[in-house]
């Protein structure tokens, strides 16, 4: 046996010892995938080969029998199930796929909220939940996924404010929350990277009726301009002044008249002692 054959055999042996057994089941991935499967509805059969048996061993190295699953070193590393007409909700147990780097459930019919538990996915770089029917708030906990590069949540029914903390994600290069029901001010750190340089432009925030602030226009006063409000204020002030003035005049005139007419009341009041 020549020297380099020996070396090659040694390298092969080391690689064999280092590589995980091909069908090693990971209990966390199994929990993650079976909960995901349970909470999704699959009317068009895109997840036909998502079977219980496959969940216990979803990975063979980089390969997976499960539609949309990519593995790395025997762990689920990517979940890509866009455009499969999936209904149902995103289960908090998705966070048990602890090696997940990319989660794409876009262009389905998912409802319910985005579980804050997803913040346990510390390697997550891509989160694409766009074009679904997700509601509730954007969890501020997502800010602890420090590797997040892409957050695409456009085209849902998310409400509430955009959490300021998301502006602290330094790797964020794509951020799209357009066409939701978000409200409140746009976090300064998402709008301006450094003063004068737009970080994300208006197209990231468009289609949310009650979001305001740069790069969108400033807060709108509902329907009325400032001038109109000032005008109405002044006008109603003047009107109430005139009304109360004429009321006082009428009252004065009436009391004058009763004092002038010597009636029973006048006599009684004259009999009353002075205090
Ligand atoms: C599972 O479904 C996907 C897509 O339909 C297919 O590519 C894959 O080969 C299937 N796997 C098995 C084991 O049937
Ligand atoms: C799995 O996910 C659930 C929900 O987020 C969590 O409570 C549980 O601790 C996780 N299990 C493990 C082993 O991480
Ligand atoms: C998210 O998914 C949608 C639909 O599948 C796709 O059009 C979009 O480009 C994706 N977003 C990013 C940032 O890749
Ligand atoms: C962001 O930058 C723009 C353009 O320079 C500036 O006009 C705006 O005041 C800044 N917004 C905030 C909230 O600092
Ligand atoms: C906004 O930024 C995106 C890339 O981040 C770019 O494709 C798009 O053209 C920009 N839109 C406007 C109106 O500047």
TrEMBL record:
Give UniProt keywords alphabetically: Cell membrane, Glycoprotein, Leucine-rich repeat, Membrane, Receptor, Repeat, Signal, Transmembrane, Transmembrane helix
Membrane-topology descriptor? Single-pass type I membrane protein
GO terms under cellular component? plasma membrane
Q: Where in the cell is it found?
A: Cell membrane
Q: What InterPro entries does the record tag this protein with? A: Leu-rich_rpt (IPR001611), LRR_dom_sf (IPR032675)
In terms of one coarse class, where is the protein primarily found?
Answer: membrane
Q: Which residues cross the membrane?
A: 226-252
SUPFAM superfamilies hit by this protein: L domain-like
Extent of the signal sequence: 1-25
Q: Does the record carry Zinc as a key word? A: no
- Report the protein name in the record: Leucine-rich repeat-containing N-terminal plant-type domain-containing protein
What organism does the UniProt record list as the source?
Panicum virgatum
């Amino acid at each position: 046996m020549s020297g380099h054959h020996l070396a090659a055999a040694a390298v092969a042996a080391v690689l064999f010892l280092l590589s995980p057994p091909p069908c090693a089941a990971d209990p966390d991935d199994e929990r993650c995938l079976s909960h995901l499967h349970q909470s999704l509805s699959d009317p068009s059969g895109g997840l036909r080969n998502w079977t219980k048996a496959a969940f216990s061993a979803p990975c063979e190295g980089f390969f997976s029998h499960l539609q949309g699953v990519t593995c790395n070193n025997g762990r689920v590393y990517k979940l890509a199930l866009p455009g499969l007409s999936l209904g149902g909700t995103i289960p908090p147990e998705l966070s048990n796929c602890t090696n997940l780097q990319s989660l794409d459930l876009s262009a389905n019919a998912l409802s319910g909220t985005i579980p804050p538990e997803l913040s346990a996915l510390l390697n997550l770089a891509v989160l694409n939940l766009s074009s679904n029917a997700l509601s509730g708030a954007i969890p501020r906990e997502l800010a602890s996924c420090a590797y997040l590069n892409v957050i695409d949540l456009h085209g849902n029914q998310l409400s509430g404010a955009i959490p300021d903390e998301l502006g602290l994600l330094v790797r964020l290069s794509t951020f799209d929350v357009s066409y939701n029901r978000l409200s409140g001010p746009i976090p300064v750190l998402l709008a301006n990277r450094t003063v004068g340089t737009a970080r994300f432009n208006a197209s990231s925030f468009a289609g949310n009726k009650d979001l305001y602030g740069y790069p969108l226009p400033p807060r709108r006063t509902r329907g009325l301009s400032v001038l109109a409000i000032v005008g109405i204020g002044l006008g109603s002030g003047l009107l109430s002044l005139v009304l109360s003035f004429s009321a006082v005049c009428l009252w004065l005139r009436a009391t004058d008249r009763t004092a002038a007419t010597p009636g029973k009341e006048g006599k009684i009041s004259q009999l009353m002692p002075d205090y």
